[in-house]
Amino acid sequence: MEKRTLKELLVVASMLFGMFFGAGNLIFPASMGQMAGWNLWQASAGFLITGVGLPLLGVAALGISREDGLLGLSSRVGKRYGLFFTCVLYLTIGPFFAIPRCATVSYTVGIERVLPGAGQTVGLAVFSLLFFGVVLFFSLRPGEILTWIGKVLNPLFLFFLAILVVRALVSPLGNFAEIAPSGAYASHAFSTGLLEGYNTMDALAGLAFGIVVVEAIRGLGVKEPGQVAKRTVYAGIFSSLLMALIYVLVTVVGAQSRGMFDVASNGGEALAQIAEHYFGGAGAVILAATITVACLKTAVGLVTSCGETFVRMFPGGPSYRVWAVVFCILSFLIANVGLDAIIAYSTPVLMFLYPLAIVLILLTLCGKAFHNDRVVLQWTAGFTAAAAAFDFLRALPEGVRTALHLDPVVGLADAWIPLASQGFGWICPAVVGLLIGLLVRYIGGKKNPTGGEKAVPSQASL
């Protein structure tokens, strides 16, 4: 690879990492480290699968498919399914949950600890207004996203993060090998780590950000589809390796902190305790800067991705600038509901969307084996969606489940669907749907070997 090409690829990879890695990506591994204790490595293995492996596969799937975005990729199952899945996914990682979470996490973990205790409601409103004003400024210049995130915001974030992590590793607060695990990490560290990786939303973001990466690579003068696909995959690999390294380091730092602190209520509080221990009052400022920059760059990437996608989905509708303004305003309003409410209601949606995203990614990567036949895709996605609906119901807040009398339904699913009580009830139905789809394709193939209209054109994959 030429030196200039490698440099450009690293900038794209830095941009992709910057869009992926928000404050939640710091909070969840820190909390996991504190709770996992000496089971840190098993928990980290699970977390890396869903927090790093799936996002990488998502970017790779979009690149290999040579589709222009998630809508084209998911529409292989069916046009209505593609529109539904794309809208729900982008709204989830966009203005309904992930973008508002960027502002509330920045304020709760960083700014709130710097400001006086009174008037926090007004403080959040003022901060989120300023936050989304900056996000909108960057988002209205999507052509410059490679520069803003890849060359400015991401290096700044890594600088602040390195100060905290290096200091903690040089002078550890304790030996995590001596820390007993707590909660579910005591008996199910690996599977608990897998589910913890859902909270990063990165597998969903991998599918969503693919369009931004593809456009950035094309903007560098790469036009041939095969080369665009190859460089998209390479950028995904580089960014994933950096993510994995930071996840492991932050998890270790969180586990070591148990030598001095009890398990914090959340990863943000854990990071705040660590920062204050090493740097005193300055630690709060360092943490606030780290968290705010991390959330800012992620929010910019999300608004840009959502805006560009909705323009493509509704070509006769509002312009990109209008979508960007609408998403920022909506995110501002939801952010002021509060972090606890956002997390409580995002979890059920993630439990429903993640299985659909995982199945779509894997079927895309293995599409050559069944010629991307739509029948196989539809049977697998249908069975997965039906089972994931029970995971959605189970993850609803307890008060909502009780009010809607859903506990008997959830109990029935736990009793009859394998792995349902662990949050993986979709796996067996997905396999059954795949087998049925392959069988139907095999039977239909004897009558029509080409697959007729049911098959997706083979040039859609490498």
UniProtKB/TrEMBL annotation:
Upper taxonomic lineage: Bacteria, Bacillati, Bacillota, Clostridia, Eubacteriales
Superkingdom of the organism of origin: Bacteria
Source species of the chain: Anaeromassilibacillus senegalensis
Full protein name: Branched-chain amino acid transport system carrier protein
InterPro entries assigned: Brnchd-chn_aa_trnsp_Livcs (IPR004685)
Subcellular location: Cell membrane
Pfam (any one): Branch_AA_trans
Family in the record: Belongs to the branched chain amino acid transporter family.
NCBIfam families: livcs
Gene it is expressed from: brnQ
Keyword field: Amino-acid transport, Cell membrane, Membrane, Transmembrane, Transmembrane helix, Transport
Transmembrane regions listed in the UniProt entry: 9-28, 40-60, 81-99, 119-140, 152-170, 203-221, 233-257, 277-302, 322-345, 351-370, 377-396, 416-440
Function: Component of the transport system for branched-chain amino acids.
Membrane topology: Multi-pass membrane protein
Predominant localisation class: membrane
